[in-house]
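Catalogue entry: protein
Contents: sequence, fold tokens
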Amino acid sequence: MVRSMTGYGRVTHHHGPITIHVEIKTLNSKYTDVNLRLPAELQTAEQPLKQRCMTTLGRGKIECNVSLDGTETPTQRINTDLVKAYVHQLQPLAKELGIQSDLIGHILRIPDVIVPEEVEADETLVQQVTAAVSAALELVNAFRLREGEALEKDFVTHIQSILNHLEAIAEHDPQRKTQVRKRLNDQLEEWVGADKVDGNRFEEELIYYLEKLDINEEKVRLRTHCDYFLELLSEEEWQKGKKLNFLAQEIGREINTIGSKAQYAPIQQHVVQMKDHLEKVKEQVLNVV
């Protein structure tokens, strides 16, 4: 089961004369980042709602907007203590400089001088909003699962293609060793002369050289990483994006090593194809929760 980080959910819920609108969007992100917008009367519910979003959705950039229709417009009040403090400081200064102006009018435009009245949250309304947010989160997860199914199919296709190319490489490997042996022998005969080549010494050096070019360990590790990648896709755990990304890096390491050791054109061609499939996996794995 794979879950995409991209999702969307919108819910409209009625609570008496009040209509609750909840809209949630999620995008790719390395971490969990929740941006929650609430009306003033719901500010006390901010932390519980944020925590609910994080627990339900996990990794990703989460934008949750909650709005209410049918509520009374919040009244505002003047912060008289702040106004008095400004007047106390500005009035003598204006008199000293000979400035005549509507001092109070200017002060009222200063931030935090006029503030909304603190409104106690209606617990019943908070419960209804929480239910609406939960319903929107379920829609987001359903969206993410649908996206995840498509991602999983692509992952299986690309990883299986890498395994197919690995099988082809295994078939080419004996021919590669024969060619390496022939190339070295031909070069020695050309540069030194066939009559001057010590056959026993040549065999010793050839074995040492072939050990340096041996790719059996890389082939085993590459198959193990690919098999585990496919196994991880089918597991019930839904937060697996970081693991899949790590495995993709390890798969790339083994492919690169095979390519650098191979020194054989037919194998190099398969390596290029494997790298192409892996790049597509790496691009898509960044969208997995």
